[in-house]
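pinging the channel bc i need a second pair of eyes. not urgent but kinda urgent?? the chain im working w is below, pasted from the shared doc
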Amino acid sequence: MTSTLPTTPPTPSPVPSPPAARALVVVAGLPGSGKTTLVRRLLGPGVPGVRAVDSEDVAARWRTGDRVPYRFVRPLVHARHRVRVLRVVLGRDRTVVLTDPWTSRWWRPVVLGAARVAGRDVRLVLLDVSAGDAADGQRIRGRRIPEGRMRRHAGRWERYRSVTGTGDVLAVDRPGAAALSLGELLGHPVG
């Protein structure tokens, strides 16, 4: 028995299959590790059913140039971003992708609690980038955080990474993040 192959191969769909359940994907790593770059590369202008939440979006709207130094605006940006995160995590979007350093001991349980209340499965994607490489990433984006704050982030990140348990956790370095597909980020197949 012979069979014929189709003359044109099927075109793969760039849109991921809907996940079985509502999900929160946290893309975590040091400031400058490449979280925003990864999410923007994979989600571009948007993917149906997926909502990205990144503090860079709030910061861009609150840019003051030279009129007011960012260090004075930063607390307002962080507060606005955190309110937005909770609203979106508790909202109706099927999948939420959050970029966050994930180094705050009080903020992690708040976000995870909101995800639990909203009935979301949680997936962590950890960008395992050294403090030096993250500092280089900050220089490239043109916005650096003070050295003392970066040291605190790095110390908390190392402590967090050493106790991260089992569950849906994917740890990748920079080359791994550059090769990551949308399906791998979301934790379900694409197409």
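so The radius of gyration is 18 Å. and The longest strand covers residues 121-127. — does that match what u expected or am i reading it wrong
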